[in-house]
Amino acid sequence: MVTAIEVSNISKQFVLRHTRSLKEAVVWLAKGRKGDLSEKFHALKNVSVEVQAGETVALLGLNGSGKSTLLKHISGVMLPDSGTVKTRGRVAGLIEVGAGFHPDLSGRDNVFLNGAILGMTEQQVKDRFDDIVEFSEIGQFIDTEVKFYSSGMYLRLAFSVAVHTDPEVFLIDEILAVGDEPFQRKCIGKIQELARDGKTLVVVSHDLDLVSRICERGVVLEHGKLMFDGPIEEAVALLRS
């Protein structure tokens, strides 16, 4: 088996700044700034996950469990405070709506820009451009500046570019909740097609029925710690219990 994703003992902390009253701030300054007006939030704590090429994995947990943070580390958007993350092959996906899009450029220009960010050559984008536009259903708005797009239009174009990069590893974070229902079904169909083609898939979603349909394995996080890693049916049952 070929390992597509190797996450080894990663930890991540964020500093939470708290808004204090003017009086509290003055007292804090008067004391020579002793004490901290912030606290640290442990988003991930020594998490290790290994995903083999062709696996379909759901990252599950309640809000604040660390699943989106873990996905961002796999995508390379974030770097861990400690530990390592390794991926094999082209990694693409949808971590945030409109990520990698420039609002003042047209949809057409953003297809080329986003394609380049995801590792495609200009010729590859040209060869797949018509398919990208057709799948996105953007049509006549392809030459409109994307700052005038609705969130649904952003989603359709961003998703279409990502799936047409032919990635080895595809990452999705709750993004399907944005589009309308017919396009959601279209996206799910495309994701299932990628899975059938042997692509590695990692999904973050609160939709347990959806992940049960498209994933074989579930990784459950709780307060930044790995709580369960096994068959998707058992992971979903654990969350529903």
Explain the layout of strands and helices:
Elements: E1 3-17, H1 22-30, E2 38-52, E3 56-60, H2 67-75, E4 82-87, E5 91-94, H3 107-117, H4 122-136, H5 151-163, E6 169-173, H6 181-196, E7 200-204, H7 208-214, E8 217-222, E9 225-231, H8 232-240
Helix pairs in contact: 3-4, 3-5, 4-5
Structure, explained:
The structure is a single chain. With 241 residues, the chain is an alpha/beta fold. Helix content is 37%, strand content 28%. A 6-stranded mixed beta sheet has the order 5-6-7-3-8-9, with helices on both faces. Helix 3 packs across helix 5 and helix 4 packs across helix 5. It is globular.
Strand order of the largest sheet: 5-6-7-3-8-9
Provide the structure class.
alpha/beta
In DSSP terms, counting alpha (H) and pi (I) runs of 4 or more, how many helices?
Answer: 8
Percent in helix: 25-40%
Question: How many DSSP E strands?
Answer: 9
The separation of the N and C termini measures 33 Å
Task: List low-confidence stretches.
Answer: none
Quickly list its features.
alpha/beta, 8 helices, six-stranded mixed β-sheet, three-stranded antiparallel β-sheet, 241 residues, single chain
Structure at a glance:
The chain contains eight helices and nine strands.
